[in-house]
From TrEMBL:
GO molecular function: DNA endonuclease activity
Database matches in PANTHER family: DNA ENDONUCLEASE SMRA-RELATED
Name by which UniProt lists this protein: DNA endonuclease SmrA
Keywords: Endonuclease, Hydrolase, Nuclease
Leader peptide range in chain numbering: none
Segments forming domain Smr: 95-176
Protein source organism: Shewanella fidelis
Pfam families the UniProt entry points to: Smr
Matching InterPro entries: Endonuc_SmrA, Smr_dom, Smr_dom_sf
Statement: the UniProt record of this protein carries the keyword Nuclease: yes
UniProt xrefs under SMART domains: SMR
Ranges annotated as spanning the membrane: none
Length: 196
């Protein structure tokens, strides 16, 4: 750079002050802010979903204590549902509702389903009990559980369990894949594509 260019540069830069280096604080503030926002968003989603799951026993269809129940969304293949019905999918995750009050059971059910999906579980068992002597009518918790599961989008299908897993007092529940599992499956299925 010549003397003329240097003096022109210094003239243009007169009065310019260097920026303070605070990028580290900004990044960590953003991370904390994002985590807090995620927590608030999850709490809001949970509150909205729970509001859709009624606690009024007169607004749900009553089930019989020994009734075998089933539910399947469109898109679930018959062979997959048949295997679910027979208890053919291993389940490492159980949700026990049968000793809880309806309000507690509703929250536990929804929170545990979300947790199970985050852990990558696809099949769980929900224990609601038969409740032959519950009031205002028999099988109250069973009826609530059936109604709630039908309304939770993450639930693809359910069927009363085999006797070895609780029979009419429990349900095999199939969950939709979590977003992370969808990405992993997509990556696994595309490995080797266009590779010679």
């Amino acid at each position: 750079m010549g003397d003329d260019e240097m003096s022109l540069f210094l003239e243009e830069m007169a009065g310019v002050q260097p920026l303070k280096n605070n990028t580290t604080a900004t990044i960590s503030e953003k991370a904390v802010s994002t985590q807090a926002q995620d927590a608030r968003r999850k709490q809001l989603q949970m509150s909205e979903q729970l509001a859709l799951l009624t606690l009024d026993p007169h607004l749900i269809t009553a089930s019989e204590p020994d009734a075998i129940v089933e539910f399947k969304r469109d898109g679930v293949q018959e062979a997959v549902f048949h295997r679910l019905r027979l208890g053919g999918y291993p389940s490492k995750f159980e949700i026990d509702l049968h000793m809880l009050k309806p309000q507690q059971a509703r929250e536990v059910l929804y929170q545990q389903i979300i947790l199970a999906r985050e852990r990558g579980e696809r099949n769980i068992i929900v224990i609601h009990g038969k409740g032959a002597k519950t009031k205002p009518y028999p099988a109250l918790m069973k009826s609530f559980a059936i109604n709630w599961l039908e309304q939770i989008d993450e639930v693809l299908a359910f069927h009363s369990a085999q006797l070895r897993h609780g029979g009419a007092g429990a349900l095999y529940v199939m969950l939709a894949k979590s977003e992370q599992k969808r990405i992993e499956t997509k990556e696994t299925n595309h490995k080797g594509v266009n590779v010679r």
